[in-house]
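Internal tracking record. Fields below are filled automatically when a chain is submitted to the structure queue. Please do not edit lines marked as system-generated. If the sequence contains nonstandard residues, flag them in the REMARKS field before resubmitting.
Queue: standard
Priority: normal
Entity type: single polypeptide chain
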Amino acid sequence: MHQLKLNAKFKLNNKKHHNTQTTYNNMKNLKVFSLYVLFISAGLSAQKPSTYTKASFGKGIGFASADSSFTLALSGRIQSMAEVKHELNSETTTADFFVRRCRLNLQGTAFHPSFTYRIQLGFAQRDITADNTAAQNNLILRDAMLYYAPKKWLKFGFGQTKLPGNRQRQVSSANLQLVERSIANNNFTLDRDKGIWMFNNFKLNKSVVKSTFAISTGDGRINSDKNGELCYSGRVEVFPFGEFAGNGDYIEASQEREAAPRLAIAGVYSYNSAASRTMGQLGEYLYNNQHANLTYYGGDLIFKYKGFSLEAELYNRESDKGIITNSKDSTLKNYMISGRTMMVQSGIFISKRSEIAVRYARIDPSQKIISLFKTQEEYVLGFSRYFFKHNLKLQTDCSYFKNGSKESLVYRLSGVVTF
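SYSTEM-GENERATED OUTPUT FOLLOWS
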């Protein structure tokens, strides 16, 4: 009996310190990785006869061998935020300061220009906080991809990165027109996953067609539940007037001041077989080890002309499961977020470096979950001051949110530097 008590005490202490040990291991791995990067950088810099370096603000520091068979570019980004939130129903106000994002990027070529790689790490608290409490996570790692491009119009990817979903998710958080993405994106996005990708692009006279297809685990960045089922996603995009300057189709705000109208229209489809999380690649596990088949589809567009930009999205997610009650506690319920969402966002430059932008977004839940997940709306008015395009900017916005009968006002201030 004494031995059983000792074992129980050991298990309890072990569970209590699990999160601390996980955090310690993550920090230890980060230190080792940072030292590895520093040693590589120092080694490349020391070999002046056979390598060269290049540094530029917004693009980081690049190292390359004399024959360019190996290149390595290091860049980073910091986003600091202040937020004040006022709940209209309870008349309560909260305020907070935090580092919203802190990222490190590594990318380059390996052996031959047709082989490239990209790694992105996140270190801010909101970068590494798990949205699934039941799974072991390595949320410091955001992207880890090896690419092979046998042709200019064809490229393959293998690893972990964003799935070909809605446009606003494809846009890097460094290139947003407002402080944060919309509620439509936050609840109806495919996010990142692990798998294989195929990218295509074709020219048809003045028009351009681009497509991305992916086969992935369907479980997102956390460890897969290995149920043998997969997720199949595709995005096809048409540019009827030709491509945007400076890859502007995935950069919010018309910073390149397109001399002629530019338009991109895209359609997306994804089928996630036997998904185990409440948003497919995101969220907690469904109760009682349940799984659901998810169908995700919709479209989006972006238009730019001179200093004006317009972006819109319309997406649907359908699930074959409704609300699930926890078999061990009937007061606990969860569900797959399903229904329809839309978002419209527009901005115009009022001077060379200053822009005003507005956004409206709405979520209409499916009838299966409407008793727990209410209709949501978002109205946003924002101002941005770009000192060096998106690489150095100050942004602020005021938002009105409505979630069922709950209403709130939110003020946000953000400073972003990409180096």
